[in-house]
Amino acid sequence: MAGPVDFSTVQKNILQSDALHQYILETTVYPREHELLKGLREKTNKEHQLALMGVPPEEGQLLSIILKLINAKKTIEVGVFTGYSLLATALALPKDGKITAIDIDRSAYEIGLPFIKEAGVEHKIDFIESPALPILDKLIEEIKEDQLFDFAFVDADKPNYAEYHERLLKLVRVGGMIAYDNTLWLGTVAVPEDPSLHPILKEGRAPLVKLNKFLAADPRIDSSLVSIGDGLTICRRRY
Ligand code: SAH
Ligand code: CA
């Protein structure tokens, strides 16, 4: 018979191996992934060099369950790409749900759009092709207290996350959620800066290190950095 487990040696970190990640995908993610989300994901992998940028399916599933738990009706997304997180959101919202989706470049969105249409959720989406900051500023000027967003998902240019945070705290209702994607930045946030780091990774690392520190101490929110995908920081507006 096996002896007792020595809990002092058990690793508390969830993902110990690629096999474990694969296990999660195969047992609980892929069987429940909407066929059009799967279609959009596969088309992105085939047609876009930067397919890696799309939110992975286990994270889409987490966002979807949270949206349903908080009864989100009105959401905003910054950084759409081909629309995996957008379609996951649109499928999770009720029929009269509304999403303001902002991306500086519409071309990748065109790849995902046929799947969004086929899923019958295009009517929930207001896509705006623009840099996000001026749109957020305009929304702040126009929005009324009873029109605030229930949920925001930020997955765009990392150096601007701190700017988005200040604006989204004015646009998301008290008790609502703001989620920041890629806050672990391929693990680079936890190690000293490596001079040979690819310039694209380098550009995101310092702002994310700073943001993670800032969010952890920001009294206006509750927050949790979830080690799913490339790191997802979930915030709840307190006041
Ligand atoms: N959430 C997406 C992935 C987004 S990738 C998915 O699940 O597939 C990041 C996106 O941010 C890119 O499409 C890029 O065009 C967009 N982006 C970069 N800078 C931006 C800015 N200043 N304003 C709005 N969008 C921006
Ligand atoms: Ca991302």
Secondary structure layout plus pairing:
Elements lengths: L17 H12 L5 H13 L9 H13 L4 E5 L5 H9 L5 E6 L3 H12 L6 E5 L2 H11 L6 E6 L6 H11 E10 L17 H19 L3 E6 L5 E6 L2
Helix pairs in contact: 2-5, 3-4, 6-7
Bound molecules: S-adenosyl-L-homocysteine (SAH) and calcium ion (CA).
Keywords summarizing the entry:
single chain; alpha/beta; Rossmann fold; seven-stranded mixed sheet; 8 helices; binds S-adenosyl-L-homocysteine; binds calcium ion
Widest beta sheet: strand line-up: 3-2-1-4-5-7-6
Instruction: Give the helices and strands as they follow along the chain.
Output: HHHEHEHEHEHEHEE
Task: Report the strand count.
Answer: 7
User: What are the segments in which pLDDT stays under 50 over at least 5 consecutive residues?
Assistant: none
Q: How much of the sequence is in beta strands? A: 15-25%
Biggest sheet features = 7 strands, mixed
Q: Name the quaternary structure.
A: single chain
